[in-house]
Design a protein that fits this description.
Elements: E1 3-7, H1 16-29, E2 34-38, H2 44-48, H3 60-65, H4 70-73, E3 75-77, E4 82-85, H5 94-97, H6 107-112, E5 121-125, H7 132-140, E6 143-149, H8 154-171, E7 177-186, H9 191-204, E8 208-214, H10 217-221, H11 237-251
Parallel strand pairs: 1-5, 1-6, 2-4, 2-5, 6-7, 7-8
Antiparallel strand pairs: 3-4
This protein binds adenosine-5'-triphosphate and magnesium ion.
């Protein structure tokens, strides 16, 4: 059975894209067939997968507008051993252009339907907003993975996201679940991070992944080479953490 995961948090810079790219590569390293969909006009997941957003002609933008089937946009990230539906700046206009469309929240879900059986996992990297693009991600997904930094405002933002997920569940996608909360850029020496982490576990219990992603410079460097960290420095703490996350998900 294919599992479709939206990687979402409307807060910017919490590690959504880093998680999307590196989890895709780590699952692929376990012989899973993986598709990564870049749903962010910043196109960081596209660049981080070694695909030049300037060159990508057919992207998720044409797919959402119904101008191209998803198969026409899909490329193989030879670096990461997974397939990618790239994005570029054009995607920023999609929201406005889709306004008049019927069922505009379900465009991605419809586009994925013909290909989804080819994959074990489909990961959707959402933009940092609760907008129509993220809504498309949430409507297409079976479950949401929420990367978060353990800092004071993280918990506040979380309740907005949880409410959005509830609304999507009641209006569009009744089976949508929270797959898990992932602690990212974690520094165990930071007392506040520890406290927020404890609170998270108290509130969300076993919805919090056991795996914690540490702050690790290799993770930040890897996109500059267009590589998942696994192929930039496989021994690094960051690479090992994402491999562990993949194992945790596969064994769940
Ligand atoms: P946006 O909301 O803009 O899409 P995002 O949630 O996708 O951001 P990332 O782009 O993954 O977040 O990460 C933000 C920045 O932090 C990037 O520069 C990234 O390289 C860096 N980063 C992410 N995770 C880690 C980590 N575990 N250790 C060190 N740096 C990290
Ligand atoms: Mg991102």
């Amino acid at each position: 059975m294919t599992k479709i995961l939206a990687i979402a948090n409307q807060k910017g810079g919490v590690g959504k894209t880093t998680t999307s790219v590196n989890l895709a590569a780590s699952l692929a390293a376990s012989d899973m067939d993986v598709l990564l969909v870049d749903l962010d006009p910043q196109a960081n997941a596209t660049m981080g997968s070694g695909t030049d957003k300037q060159i990508a002609r057919t992207t998720v933008y044409q797919v959402l507008l119904g101008e191209a089937p998803l198969q026409a946009a899909r490329v193989t990230s030879t670096q990461g051993k997974y397939d990618l539906v790239p994005a570029n700046r054009d995607l920023a206009g999609a929201e406005v252009e889709m306004v008049g469309f019927e069922r505009r929240e379900a465009r991605l879900r419809a586009a994925l339907e013909p290909v989804q059986d080819e994959y074990d996992y489909i990961l959707i990297d959402c933009p940092p907003a609760l907008n129509l693009l993220t809504l498309n991600g949430l409507c297409a997904a079976h479950a949401v993975m929420i990367p978060m930094q353990c800092e004071y405002y993280a918990l506040e933002g979380l309740s907005d996201l949880v409410n959005t997920i509830k609304r999507v569940r009641s209006s569009f996608n009744p089976s949508l679940r929270i797959e898990g909360l992932l602690r990212t850029m974690f520094d165990p020496r930071n007392i506040l991070a520890q406290q927020v982490s404890d609170q998270l576990q108290k509130h969300f219990g076993d919805k919090v992944y056991r795996t914690v992603i540490p702050r690790n410079v290799r993770l930040a460097e890897a996109p500059g080479f267009g590589l998942p960290v696994l192929y930039h420095d496989g021994q690094s703490k960051g690479a090992q953490a994402y491999l562990e996350l993949a194992r945790e998900i596969l064994n769940a």
